[in-house]
Amino acid sequence: MADAEREVFVPSVEQGDGIVVGLGIFSTEKIAMSVLKDFLKRTEQMDLISAEMTRWVIDIIGHEGSSLLFRMANRRCPVCERNTFWIDLVSFNAMCYGSGCGAWIEDNIHIEEIIDCGWPPLRFLHQSPTVESAMTELGKMGARLKAAGQADSALAAKAFLEEYGEEGSLTDDVLRKMGDPKLADEGR
Ligand SMILES: [Zn+2]
User: Fold this and answer.
1) The predicted structure's pLDDT at residue 163
2) Cα 8 to ligand 1 centre (Å)
3) Domain for residue 115, yes or no?
4) Which of 8, 16, 140, 165 has the fewest Cβ atoms within 10 angstroms?
């Protein structure tokens, strides 16, 4: 083989009935990733349990030519309660792909023992010691927004932020970085 080895990237999703649906074969991981992300944004009404990305080296017989790059599991979002919360099972990073939500959990890039979580519509950011407690924090926020009535989400969000701020969840440092919180009323 004189040519450099050629590889392709194959994103796929698994439905609740066990059927795996391939989303195509792509020449770069970047394109494959954006195809998968676009697809996940439209999955609110679909029954999906997992998504994964496989790299294949072409012209190799059998599974030695393939390697699994990542696998994500689908969970109920702790904030919006739709089944659009995708958790990377290796890194444990997670994000909700539901429209208008975007709740996320991520390892802090500077401090290993800290897990960051957030909710973009409110610019909410919280730091937790574990993934479980990050899920709990997001869940608390979801419950509170729901209790306050989503019809008036801007007011609910503001009330929540004031209360949460007093609990010290949002540090001065973080608040300074974020600027004034923008509320999720989207001009209504
Ligand atoms: Zn969500």
Assistant:
1) 55
2) 31
3) no
4) 16
* β-strand partners of 133: none
Among 11-15, 81-85, 115-119, 156-160, which stretch is predicted with the lowest mean pLDDT? 156-160
Task: Look at residue 18 and tell me if it is in a domain.
Answer: yes
Structure confidence at residue 180 (pLDDT) = 39
Q: Considering the domain boundaries, does residue 138 fall inside one?
A: no
Structural domain for 50, as ranges: 1-75
On whether residue 62 sits in a domain, the answer given is: yes
156 C-alpha to ligand 1 centroid (Å): 17
Count how many domains the chain has: 1
- pTM assigned to the model: 0.72
Mean pLDDT throughout 33-49?
89
**How many angstroms does the Cα of residue 86 sit away from the middle of ligand 1?**
10
Confidence of residue 56 (pLDDT cuts 50, 70, 90): very high
